[in-house]
Every structure is written in C-alpha cells, then in structure tokens.
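Duplicate of earlier report; Beta-D-glucosidase input re-posted below.
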Amino acid sequence: MTDNASITERRVQAVPLEEKVGQLFVAGFDGTEPTDDIEQLVSSHHLGGVIYFSRNIDSPGQVASLSDHLQTIAHDAGQPPLLIATDQEGGVVSRFDWGAQLPSQMALGATRDPDTLRTAGETVGEELASLGISMNFAPVLDVNNNPENPVIGVRSFGDDPDLVGELGAALASGFQSAGVAACGKHFPGHGDTETDSHRSLPVVPHDRDRLEAVEFVPFRRAIDAGIDALMTTHIAFPAITGDETLPATLSEDVLTGILREEFGFDGLLVSDCLEMNAISETVGTAEGAVQALNAGCDIVLVSHSPERQRDAIERVVAAVESGEIPESRIDSAFERVQRYKRQQFGDGRTGSGDWQAAVEQSRTVARELARESVTVVRDRTETVPFDTSEPIHFVGFAGSAQSDAEDDRYDPADLLASLAQHDVEVHFHQIVDPAGYDHPFDGGEQVAVATYHARSNPEQERVVSEIADAGTELAVVSVRDPYDLAAFPDVSTYLTSYGYSPAMLDALADVLLGRTEGSGTLPVTIPGVE
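Output:
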C-alpha cells in the first residue's frame, strides 16, 4: 500500500512548510472508524501520526482495518505513512484488554527479570505490529519514590533508579526488536510528585545532584541502550530552569541543553499531550506547541479536540512564517521524523504478522511474569495458602481509575472468577459503600480481603481492622498498589499483585490456593512498615 517514493529522502528545503509542520503532529480522535476531522487533518494539514486510546479499539480485526484505512487516507493524499502510536504499558494503562496486556510495570519490577522482560517486549511488539501500530508509548522510566504519587505508582518499575533503568531498557529493546519504536517516559521524571499533570502543573524542587542520582538514571540507561524515542513531562524543574511555572516540555534548557547536548540523545523527542491542564490551562495548547517545538520536541501530541489540533498546527505555521520559530528548528525535527519513518516504512510495510500467533505468545509470557511477581510481603501466621477443603470468603471493595491516564476496568468480581476456576467453595462479599458495611464473621473463617487504594479510604481501613479483630484467618491483598499496607501495618498476612490484569488475578488466586508460591520481591519501600 505504501509507495516508497513518498518517504524517500528529499532535500528538506524543497518540502513546503505546511507539510513539514503537519508531519510533527500526532492527533487522536473518537470512535473505531476515522472521523471526518481526522481525515481532514491527514489530507489537508499533512498530519504525521495518530494515537489510539481505548475509545478507538474494539477487536483485533477492527484495529488492523482501522490502521489500514488511515494509511490509505495518507497514501491517497500523497503523504508519508502515518506513525500510529498507543500506550500499551501493561497493568492499569493497557489500551488493548483483549491482547497484549502485561502485568503492571511495578509487578515486572517485582520479578527483577530483565531477560523475560525483553522477551515480553518482543511478543507485545509483534502483536502491536500485526495491528499496524508502529510506536508504543512505553516503558515508563519514572522512579516512583513518592507513595502519594497519583498518576505513576504501579506504572513504575519501582523506587530503585538502577532497577528501573535496567528493566526499562530490557522492555524497550524487546519492543524495538519487533519493529515497534519504544518511547520512554516522562523525562525528566514524574515519579516524585503528588500532583497529576493531567490536572495541574506539578513542581519537583530537587537540586541537580539529586536529579542526577535518581530521576535521570533510567533515562541515561535507556539512551545508552538505543531507545528510539523519549516523551517529555509537563512538570516544572526550577533547579534546571530557574522557573517554577515552566513545564519541562517547554524548556530548551531541559530538552536541548540536557537531553540533546549533555546526554547525546538523537532519537525522537515527543511531547506528552498538550491538552493536559498543565499546558492547556496555562499557556494554552496552540502556544504550547510553539514553545515545545522551540524547546526541542520533534513531535507534539494533541490527543482529543479537532479544533485544538487544527489551531495548534496553524499556529506553528504562522510562528515559523513570522520568525518566532526558526525554520531550521522545524527542519531538524522534520528530518528526524522522516528518518524514523524511512526506518519503519522504507520497505513499504505498514503492518505485518499474524495477530493470533503473536497474542498467544504474549499471553504466555504475561502468565509467566505474573506468577513471578505476586509478592507475599508477610505471612506471620502462615495463613496462605488457604485450606481448599473449607469455604473461603472473599471481600472485595469497588475501585475506579486514579488518573486520567488509566483505563477504568477494575471489578472485584474478576478476582472471584479467578478463584472460582478451582475446586473450592467461595463466598463473595462485594462492598460498594464501606461506610455502611458490617462484616458477618464470628471467628475462624478463611477470609481474603482485596483492598483498592485503601490509604485514601479510611472506611476500607476500618473494615479490614474489624475483620482482623474478629479472629478470622485473614489475608489482605492489595490489587492496586502495595502502599496500602501502610493503612494497616499490623496485619499478619499481606500480599500484593500490583494490578488487576487477567494474568495477574489468576496468579494471585493460585498463590492464595497453594497452586504456586508468591515469589516476587517488593520493588518499593512502604513508609512506616518494616
């Protein structure tokens, strides 16, 4: 479908300005078919790429058809192939819930197994490539050393910079070995914030020495390992910029001074979405595009609004024409994007492989990693495994996404289904309103309680404490993040699964019922818990 001539190397000065600028934008759209707006952006604004979210995804055949349709639109408009990207991190950020869904990165951190992660990245990459996807906005290279972080948490491999770097580089190399670009995020680091940049502008106040020792370490490791792309973050780093109101995405000191000149990174530099409040509610999306490109970004991401997408492209064109952005900066970004597209599509290929074969491989490796990652943090009373000849009571709290970045799929009944696959009697107690719940236990019952972000829900803490005080054989399981243990540090038996992907819940059930051991090693420190 792709004509090689459309991406052959051309003298950049011969390319019209509007085409060069359009190629630097990646946009999102609603629905499982191309909208009129996205078609117009491709055909008349020379759009360089698209991003898929869950809203665009129904089935493997539909996604492959969507990718092919979009590439046909670009081809018929005489444009280079589109970069098609998604966020398939694993765990709570998994746009495809029927396919390549690895456990969360923190679960992968609990395995400390870079070799299997490399294999996992390759299998996921093969699956994405078979659907026409050429870039994965993963791995997350943030060091999650703040338990109160509302947006990273289990999306990070852990709080050890060296471990995050080693595992991130391994996963990225796996994606890239399958022909899918890895894009590590979020530079310089989103791991030590208590604010979600989707909603406002966080500030990281650490000095340069601290940033070098912690936040920068995984990014340096990924760059040394040859990662294709990095994504910026909308966080202020005044130790670098001298400004508590300037997001890193818009800072030439951060992107050009540190990433390009100090770290020697020559891959694609992608902005996080410019419709996030840290940009859209401060400088604005269109002005943010101008400043991000001036700062050193090669690709700017505008994920949602067609009007903002058009305005941003047109604003950048006007900024180049007025001299606000040097055309040499646009030329540099355009050449880097085209170099990547020649690498990806130079043989005319925009999708390949057998999805069914790829997904079976990725599911196999996901199950292997899940079994390695379930962590029995403590079991002082040897409660686990439960006696499967006796009834087991499962208490599950409702939970919802903690950030706009996540896919809201948690249902405590999913763990019930994993337990019920085995020959065991299970009684389900689902709690929608913890404040109104009084437990029915008299003592001696086997009880598993699955908590979900209990540290911010005192009523979950109350319920767990009362069930423990009733003399039950209690195992508390965090299906969200391991920091829940800080809400009840005296509980005798505590496990964590770092997420609720299907493979993860099956592995958790296996540990509770004695089918396998929980061999994961906690990759973070829980404050106040020994």
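DSSP finds 18 helices and 16 strands in the chain.

Merging into the original ticket.
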